[in-house]
UniProtKB/TrEMBL annotation:
SMART domains: HTTM. The keyword Magnesium does not apply. It comes from the Bacteria. Keywords: Membrane, Transmembrane, Transmembrane helix. The keyword Transmembrane applies. Its main location: membrane. It is a multi-pass membrane protein. InterPro entries: HTTM-like (IPR011020), Sporulation_signal_mat (IPR052964). GO terms for cellular component: endomembrane system. Residues 11-285 form the HTTM-like domain. It comes from Adhaeribacter radiodurans. This is HTTM-like domain-containing protein.
Length: 498
């Protein structure tokens, strides 16, 4: 038992300064995510949008979900909740009342994501899980307002607990499980997965266009991706030269996600992963940061404060949480036990999904996962890459009998593929919505999107340009092997009218 504890401390100890930098990054990501989502307050979160509350509860709701955002279908209520979330996201970023800010930010993120699962992606799950584990981590001990108020000149740098182990295991699960889920030959035998992924014009970025013609390179990158995801995370469990191996993992995965960011349109997925890696940085990297970069950052902060308002009497929340030592020890034991229990549950949840084990989690024990939203499925391009590609045409008929494409700002309808399919999407939330729109089991979505686009077009245009009928058309291209040309097939997914 003694040697096991020494091993666990060796591989699962984290530098609190790394956690603090990750906290700052997570706070920034929360604010950025809210900013992007706020541009679609009505469309994605109000009854006048694409998913009214009665539709959400009928088709896309779990009885154990919790969501403040589902208490009202008014966009104004959503705006208030967004502002509250932004406030606590900012408090998290600066490290003011960090634990409270973490708990509220996690809860409001959970609430927001539950309101509309049709626009969610894997990065949302990771962001939610990082915030959950961080509730039990001391990531406000450095580089924070809390640290200034504590006036502790020599805080402890290293931290080992069930939560630090859970954080590292969570990072490992993302990659190991996505590799196990990629059990089709295109990932580990034929090596054609990246060819198919870059054939999807809906996610193709300029970097992807650049490497797409080179089949040999795509074959190499496919196999590299699979084996990096499957084996590299286990390097974090090596109990010697841990600083070197942590830097190796962070460096490789950082390059991996930067490569994804320039080749595939994945929204904030790559950024959330990059921020999560900061928490893995070992002490030597943080020592370098403190010696070389921190003084310049502090100097910049001092200069900015010279031009800021001086708030002499800020509102401060004061609580007296002093507990007897015995009671404090009991609370620590309860906390550690709870975190270990949730971690084991999360591991069970993840591995019950992989085909190699083929042991699904019983429905009767899934409710805690849905309640706390520690449910997760890392099926990125798994088990195989989606082959049905294409683009949307929103064909509207005006009062003057013109056929215009609302998806291209009212230009005449054409079935010619646009130069950039990605450019047709306002953001990655709409791209994900468009992907879910195709599935037959999501057919309930279709009329609400059609009526929403019809309404907002008519509200913004003159009577002669208003549309009386709208067809949602998908020009489907089934990707074929070896760069074979394919003729798009026109599919009418929905028709609506005034």
């Amino acid at each position: 038992m003694h040697y096991l504890l020494l091993y666990l401390k060796k591989v699962f100890t984290v530098d609190v300064r790394a956690l603090a930098l990750m906290r700052i990054g997570i706070g920034f990501v929360i604010l950025l995510d809210l900013g992007i989502r706020a541009t679609d307050l009505e469309a994605h979160y109000a009854n006048m949008g694409v998913l009214p509350l009665h539709v959400l509860f009928q088709y896309n709701w779990d009885p154990y979900f919790i969501s403040l955002h589902a208490i009202s279908g008014l966009w104004q209520v959503q705006a208030v909740l967004f502002l509250i979330a932004a406030l606590f996201g900012f408090l998290l970023l600066i490290g003011y009342r960090t634990r409270l800010a973490t708990i509220v930010s996690w809860f409001l993120l959970l609430s927001l994501q539950n309101r509309n699962l049709l626009i969610g992606q894997a990065g949302d799950d990771l962001l939610r899980m990082i915030l959950f584990w961080a509730i039990f981590l001391p990531w406000g001990r450095f580089y924070s307002q809390d640290a200034k108020r504590a006036n502790n000149l020599h805080p402890e740098n290293l931290h080992f607990s069930a939560a630090s182990a859970a954080f590292i295991v969570q990072i490992m699960l993302v990659y190991v499980c996505t590799a196990l889920l990629k059990n089709s030959p295109e990932w580990h035998t034929t090596g054609t997965a990246l060819y198919y992924a870059l054939s999807l014009d809906q996610v193709l970025m300029p970097g992807g266009k650049l490497i797409y013609p080179y089949s040999g390179l795509l074959h190499f990158l496919t196999l590299s991706t699979y084996y990096i995801e499957l084996y590299l995370p286990f390097v974090l469990l090596i109990p010697f030269y841990t600083s070197f191996f942590r830097l190796l993992v962070v460096g490789v995965l950082t390059g991996f996600h930067l490569g994804i960011s320039v080749t595939l349109f994945v929204g904030l997925f790559y950024l959330i992963n990059l921020v999560s890696f900061i928490g893995l940085l070992p002490a030597p990297a943080l020592n370098w940061f403190d010696a070389k970069l921190l003084p310049h950052i502090q100097n910049l902060g001092y200069r900015l404060r010279r031009f800021s308002f001086n708030i002499k009497n800020p509102i401060q929340l004061r609580f007296n949480w002093q507990l007897p030592a015995a009671r404090k020890a009991i609370l620590i034991i309860v906390k550690e036990g709870f975190v270990i229990s949730v971690l084991l549950y999360v591991i069970w949840w993840n591995f019950s999904n992989v085909p190699q084990i083929n042991h699904p989690m019983p429905v009767s024990v899934r409710w805690p996962g849905m309640l706390l939203r520690v449910d997760q499925h890392w099926g990125m391009f798994a088990p195989e890459v989606f082959k049905d590609d294409g683009w949307y045409i929103l064909e509207g008929v005006t009062a003057t009998h013109k056929h215009i494409d609302l998806n291209r700002n009212g230009q005449p309808v054409t079935e010619r593929k646009p130069e950039s399919v990605v450019a047709l999407f306002k953001n990655d939330r709409w791209r994900k919505y468009g992907e879910n729109y195709l599935f037959v089991n999501n057919a309930f979505m279709r009329p609400y999107f059609c009526h929403y686009r019809l309404r907002i077009w008519n509200e913004a245009h003159r009577p002669e340009d208003k549309v009386s009928e709208l067809q949602v058309i998908y020009m489907k291209e089934r990707t074929l092997p070896n760069y074979q040309p394919v003729k798009p097939k026109r599919e009418v997914l929905c028709t609506c009218s005034l």
